[in-house]
Amino acid sequence: xxxxxxxxxxxxDENYGFQDTxxxxxxxxxxxxxxxxxxxxxxxxxxxxxxxxAMHADDLSLIDDKLTHFLCYWSGxxxxxxxxxxxxxxxxxxxxxxxxxxxxxxxxxxxxxxxxLQTYKPSFKKYLLEQLANPAERIRLTSxxxx
Length: 147
What we know:
Shape: globular
Strand content: under 5%
Distance between the termini: 45 Å
Structural class: mainly alpha
Order of helices and strands: HHHHHHHH
Helix content: 55-70%
Largest sheet: none
Low-confidence stretches: 1-12
Number of helices: 8
């Protein structure tokens, strides 16, 4: 190994983002359900997340189901989101919300904390959070917030 060459962050044999590798790395539907439950627990408890939690209904069961099915689909798993809720267009679905940097960062903080609790490989934890930052930023850019 040449120490002057850049090292890959994700080992080549893990190849996240290809077909269903991310879905499997997340523990399939059961693993994603655990992640989403943890995510919403942090959204309910972290002071930084109050502003984002206020954007949701008191009953989180529908949004919990949507996020679970979206993450399954997004990670290469079953297309159950499309079957239940229709086409996926995450920025458009959030356009009515005022999402600025503060809201984006609060959402990502809840997801980071939830990911930390999972038994995923460290390389997948890093990959997943980095990948989720992309739609979070697109939501910010297309929201009603002027910043």
